[in-house]
Amino acid sequence: MDLSKIKTLIDFVGRSNVTELTVTEKDVTVRIFCTPGKAAPIASAKALERSPASPAKCSRDASADTQASIITVKAPIFGVLHRAPAPGQAPFVKIGDVVEEGQTLFIIEAMKVFNKVAAPQAGRIMRLTDVDGGEVETGDMLAEIA
To answer: How far apart are CA 85 and CA 107, in angstroms?
Structure first.
């Protein structure tokens, strides 16, 4: 699938009420989805022989606590998770850090494209994944923000 076709599909999802679109051409599947509150849709592509496209999963899950609302930040796409901007540098966030809405928490590398994972709300990092430099699946828990 060529890049111009993927860009056209991303533009379509961004302009429409469609929240997820999956297109398969030959042995490549492209999943494009737009999460509520985000400006731009996210694209994910992977070869079918690695694993079939998984069903849609929400990129964030809010559960009410008696004292505070905790948001679970989940991996929006399949790829290699990077907790720091570059090898040898400090991670974007640590447990206990206070983050602002939209602040970069992680980078997920998928097909040589680096996708930023931003904080869906302001709050304190309560929990982080142990994965760094390894693969994550769509829907894997990356962090919890309270």
So the answer is: 7
d(CA 124, CA 145): 5
Q: Residue 99 phi/psi, 5° resolution?
A: -120, 155
- For residue 91, give the H/E element and its range: none
Q: Is the pTM of this model over 0.70?
A: no
Helix ranges, the chain (H): 3-15
75, 82, 85: which is closest to 31 by C-alpha?
Answer: 75
Closest CA to 138 of 60, 66, 78: 78
Q: Are 115 and 108 in contact (CB under 8 A)?
A: yes
- Who contacts 98 (Cβ-Cβ below 8 Å, separation ≥6)? 122, 123, 124, 125
For 77-110, the pLDDT digits (tens) are 999 999 999 989 999 999 999 999 999 999 999 8
**Sign of the Cα pseudo-torsion (105, 108, 113, 119, in order):** negative
Structure token pair of residue 80: 């290699």
